Amino acid sequence: MAYIELHDVVKDFKIKNRRNGAFGNVKNFFAPQYLTKRAVDHISLEINRGEMVGYIGPNGAGKSTTIKILTGILLPTSGYVKVGNLEPYKNRKQHALHMGAVFGQRSQLLWDLPVQDALDLFRGMYRIEEKTYKKNVEMFCDLLGLDQFLMQPARQLSLGQKMRANLALALIHDPDVVYLDEPTIGLDVLAKDNIRAFLREINKEKNTTVLLTTHDMTDIESVCDRLVLINSGSVLYDGGLNAFKEQYSKGYSIRVTFADPKEAIQDTRFELIEKKDAESIYHVSQSDFQPGEALAFLASHCKMQDISIIETPIEEIVKAIYKHEA
């Protein structure tokens, strides 16, 4: 049985339709009108314990709304939601003991409270045993470098330090699942790498289920084994990263260094993109040649010094999908 289950989940929001003018204001007060906006549109999804899932889509696709439904913050308009055999919106207190959440734009830290005191506060709130608490703090100090700023109040921390502290707070009680909504937003490259490595290690050590929403595709490729793509509240793709590339990528590029700088590939299935001296880059459609077939073809038809495959970055594939679905 899946650890997280969403079946035919719908979430609608009512938005007041305001009319202008003095008479319009009177009508707004005595006879308000509402528009219905659907944020989540019949989503069905199952996630097993220990999976690391990237949940992506353009702004307004319904990612954060889904996360809030799973955490119990929002009640779905219709459908069925269970996380670890609990309905989040009906068993909020019990569910909170088994989950952690980090929202990139919001912090769980208190402005004047040192990180150590915040961890102690969460220890009491979750009734964590002394042995477990010390073990986790030591692990977070090792993996996240918390010991460098444990005694500093939140107001003195950099953005990267605040994010690391928030991750520690979200995971201090050994939750079964952690929801991460844009956890690397605004961070520098080194800080992002540290957080990605930390998430992989936590998943390996504690089998923690991770649901990650982000616009940074490197987060997805570095952390997740599975990708769920949504748009307008509906699931467009659910599967592995490699299968996603194969399904949506229109092709790939091949970089060739010829023995003779004047040589070129004559076959029209290889589209020349760039040429500099003896080095040329060609675009190849998946429907014409699979990468292995293209390499074998070139090896038998050209004299080359070097050859390499350049895969289309997943970020470029996702951008193309967003533009097509817009």
Structure description:
The strands form three sheets. The chain has a six-stranded mixed β-sheet, sandwiched between helices. Strands 11-12-10-13 form a four-stranded antiparallel β-sheet, with helices on one face. The model has no long low-confidence stretch (mean pLDDT 88). Helix 5 packs antiparallel against helix 6. The longest helix is centred in the middle third of the chain and has 18 residues, at 189-206. Strand 6, helix 7 and strand 7 (209-213) form a beta-alpha-beta unit. The protein is globular, with a radius of gyration of 25 Å. It has helices spanning 22-30, 63-71, 92-96, 115-126, 130-144, 159-171, 189-206, 217-223, 241-248, 291-301, 314-325; strands spanning 4-17, 33-47, 52-56, 78-83, 99-103, 177-181, 209-213, 226-231, 234-240, 251-258, 270-276, 279-285, 304-311. By secondary structure, it is α/β, with parallel strands linked by helices. It contains eleven helices and 13 strands. The protein starts with a strand and ends with a helix. 31% of the residues are buried.
Largest sheet, strands/sense/barrel: 6 strands, mixed
Would you list the SSEs in sequence order as H and E?
EHEEHEHEHHHEHEHEEHEEEHEH
Kindly state the percentage of residues in helix. Answer: 25-40%
Q: Bin the strand percentage.
A: 25-35%
Whole-number mean pLDDT: 88
Detail the poorly predicted runs. none
Q: Whole-Å distance between the termini?
A: 35 Å
Question: Radius of gyration from the CA trace?
Answer: 25 Å
Number of beta strands: 13
